[in-house]
Design brief:
The protein contains eight helices and seven strands. By secondary structure, the protein is of the alpha/beta class.
């Protein structure tokens, strides 16, 4: 999912936050790795599903990974963070969460009422998910009902079988993708998905555009399944593969 050099994602993310929140107070950033939105700030804490050392081993090509303050070893991660924050940040995270309804519930437990959550989310139109179907409300409700703690066989299969190697620049320039050419042969994709389902693997469980995500959040809020409303959003800028969203926790 290469992005054009003309798009500076960190500057775009910081500017979006400053426009809608102002100067952030206490911040929790989830999954920052070596590219935090705000660094060198005493009011920022970092959380990830692995320890700093485990992340360094898994991503040896990434230098200066931020020290992880809270290791989220289970989906009910709210109980693992004994403080609350005014702003939570999660960039390119939610598409990998098997059960998003639970994730938003946990996020609400560590953000103060009236607080904020900033998300940078891959837009399928400019990523390897380009031919995958969008996540539906029924999908999210089913995942919550099943209380998924790891990607399902179906989620893994879709990630493998419908993956298309693309360059964001080419997609912005209108290059067409041959949807009839999957990443791997279907039988192999099934076997691999079944084998991977025995443990946890980072795959894209969900697929969005900026419009589809906003509609999903509105429906989830109206159904009292999440405590978050969309305050602002920004469509993908040219050269980018992500859209930006600012959520506000209901009081």
């Amino acid at each position: 999912m290469n992005e054009e050099a003309t798009y500076n994602k960190l500057n775009a993310r910081r500017d979006f936050i400053k426009r809608h929140v102002g100067k952030p107070g206490s911040i929790l950033e989830i999954g920052a790795l070596n590219a935090p939105v705000f660094s060198g700030n005493a009011n920022v804490k970092y959380a990830d599903r692995l320890t700093t050392e485990e992340l360094a081993a898994q991503y040896p090509h990434k230098a200066n990974i931020k020290r992880v303050d809270y290791v989220l070893t289970r989906p009910a991660f709210g109980a693992l963070i004994p403080e609350t924050f005014q702003l939570a940040i999660a960039n390119h995270v939610i598409q990998q969460v098997p059960d998003l309804i639970n994730w938003f519930d946990q996020l609400g437990s560590v953000v103060v009422p009236g607080g904020w959550a900033f998300l940078a989310v891959p837009d399928k139109r400019y990523t390897s998910d380009i031919v995958r179907p969008l996540t539906t409300l029924a999908d999210l409700i089913d995942c919550a009902h099943r209380e998924l703690t790891a990607p399902s066989v179906g989620q893994i299969f879709s990630h493998l079988y419908l993956h298309h190697k693309v360059a964001t620049k080419d997609l912005w320039e209108g290059k067409r993708v041959d949807a009839a050419r999957p990443r791997m042969e279907v039988a192999k994709a099934v076997r691999t998905a079944l084998a991977m389902s025995e443990g946890y693997h980072s795959v894209h469980c969900h697929v969005f555009t900026d419009d589809s995500f906003s509609h999903l959040m509105e429906d989830l809020y109206q159904a009292a399944l999440v405590d978050w409303v969309v305050h602002a959003r920004e469509k993908p800028q040219r050269g980018s593969n992500e859209f930006l969203v600012m959520l506000r926790r209901s009081r």
